[in-house]
Design a protein that fits this description.
The chain has about 140 residues and is an alpha+beta fold. It has a single domain, classed as 2-Layer Sandwich (Alpha-D-Glucose-1,6-Bisphosphate, Chain A, domain 4), CATH 3.30.530. The protein has three helices and six strands; from the N terminus they run E-H-H-E-E-E-E-E-H.
């Protein structure tokens, strides 16, 4: 089994404001998960932290794989309940005074990660709503 997640929203904010929101430690900690070591630099290894739930320890590990400011950010993503690494790709596109945000979270393979992917898909809906509130 395989699962990929694709989410898109448009926000009333400039592409530079959105880029800052998805790449600044301070901003990420306000609308996403807290982090003390994220930097938008290829090779940066980081940890996002949230409230532990069930068997999940509340930590998401990652490594920045690609940076094309201010339009694309790609990083790996894995947690203690996942069998393999997944990939998150942020794509930002200017639309007049607004910005279209697309998040592609790919690579959930096998039944266990497929189940986790369904939970994470719900989380992306929540996080993108939070990002919109943060920006607007």
């Amino acid at each position: 089994m395989k699962k990929d997640i694709h989410r898109e929203i448009s926000v009333e904010a400039s592409i530079d404001q959105v880029w800052e929101a998805i790449t600044s430690r301070e901003s990420l900690s306000q609308w996403y998960m807290s982090t003390s070591n994220f930097e938008p630099v290829v090779g940066c290894q980081f940890v996002f932290e949230d409230k532990p739930q069930g068997k999940w320890d509340g930590k998401v590990h990652g490594e920045v794989l690609q940076v094309e400011a201010p339009s694309q950010l790609v990083y790996s993503f894995w947690g203690n309940q996942m069998k393999g690494k997944t990939t998150v790709r942020w794509t930002l596109t200017e639309e007049g005074q607004n910005t279209r945000i697309r998040v592609d979270h790919t690579g959930f393979e096998g039944f266990g990660d497929w189940l986790i992917g369904n939970i994470i898909a719900f989380g992306w809906r929540k996080f993108l709503k939070s990002l919109r509130r943060y920006l607007e």
